[in-house]
């Protein structure tokens, strides 16, 4: 099953950016800026940022552009997604790594911010909670883990595509995990805050270790 999921994402990498543009329309850039600003890394010397399930790299590259003096790492288990991300990064401003979100290959407390954008609900079984535990483990004390997820789209056709994608690769357990609100996050983190993107199409859960 894992090999099948990887093949799906490798194939989806060829269409992913167009799908996001269709869903987001003119809001994609403002949502990304909102996410980057929410990390609150101003004043941090050499900030270290980890983007979990980075896909084609749009978020990690936005961090790399805002904090060129820092280290930005995008992690995904799909080689196709990582290939597209590297193609975007012609300047070599970020680092990309193939790995599992539930078993991060990093030491404890090494990142100033950890981000997972529009991906947590796609993980299967216990993977969402395991991934959250790993994010908490690798972020520094007092620093932030940012989880951004889609609100259910209002447009009928985009809602249909969203639900179809959830049915194909999402997990009922993971979806329920997110529908549960902030409770799963409060079990792990000392502070949890909910906000919404300027467009209202995404919600942001800001977790402080």
* Integer count of domains: 1
Largest sheet: 7 strands, mixed
User: N-to-C terminal Cα separation, in Å?
Assistant: 33 Å
Instruction: Report the C-alpha radius of gyration, rounded.
Output: 16 Å
Helix content: 40-55%
**What is the CATH class name?**
Alpha Beta
Q: Total number of β-strand segments?
A: 7
Strand order in space, largest sheet: 3-2-1-4-5-7-6
Element layout with pairings:
Layout: H1 2-12, H2 16-24, H3 28-38, E1 48-52, H4 58-66, E2 71-76, H5 79-88, E3 95-98, E4 111-117, H6 127-138, E5 139-150, H7 156-169, H8 172-179, H9 183-186, E6 191-196, E7 202-208
Parallel strand pairs: 1-2, 1-4, 2-3, 4-5
Antiparallel strand pairs: 5-7, 6-7
Helix pairs in contact: 3-4
Overview of the structural elements:
The chain has helices spanning 2-12, 16-24, 28-38, 58-66, 79-88, 127-138, 156-169, 172-179, 183-186; strands spanning 48-52, 71-76, 95-98, 111-117, 139-150, 191-196, 202-208. The chain is α/β, with parallel strands linked by helices and 209 residues long. It has one domain (2-9, 44-208): Vaccinia Virus protein VP39 (Rossmann fold, 3-Layer(aba) Sandwich). Helix 3 crosses helix 4. The chain is globular and about 40 Å long.
Give descriptors for this structure.
209 residues, alpha/beta, Rossmann fold, 7-stranded mixed sheet, 7 strands
Give a short overview:
The protein is an alpha/beta fold. It has helices spanning 2-12, 16-24, 28-38, 58-66, 79-88, 127-138, 156-169, 172-179, 183-186, and strands spanning 48-52, 71-76, 95-98, 111-117, 139-150, 191-196, 202-208. It has one domain: Rossmann fold (3-Layer(aba) Sandwich).
């Amino acid at each position: 099953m894992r090999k099948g999921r990887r093949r799906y994402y490798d194939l989806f990498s060829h269409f992913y950016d167009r799908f996001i543009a269709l869903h987001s329309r003119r809001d994609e850039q403002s949502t990304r800026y909102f996410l980057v600003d929410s990390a609150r890394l101003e004043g941090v010397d050499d900030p270290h940022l980890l983007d979990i399930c980075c896909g084609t790299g749009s978020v990690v590259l936005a961090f790399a552009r805002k904090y060129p003096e820092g280290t930005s790492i995008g992690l995904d288990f799909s080689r196709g997604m990582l290939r597209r991300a590297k193609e975007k990064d012609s300047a070599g401003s970020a680092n990309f790594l193939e790995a599992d979100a539930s078993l991060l290959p990093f030491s404890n407390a090494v990142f100033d911010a950890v981000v997972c954008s529009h991906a947590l609900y796609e993980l299967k079984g216990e993977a969402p909670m395991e991934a959250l535990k790993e994010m908490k483990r690798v972020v520094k004390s007092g620093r932030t883990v940012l989880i951004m997820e889609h609100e259910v789209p209002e447009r009928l056709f985009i809602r249909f595509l969203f639900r179809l994608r959830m049915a194909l690769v999402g997990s009922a357990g993971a979806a329920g995990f997110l529908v549960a609100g902030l409770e799963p996050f409060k079990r792990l983190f000392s502070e949890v805050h909910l906000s919404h993107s300027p467009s209202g199409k995404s919600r942001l859960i800001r977790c402080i270790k």
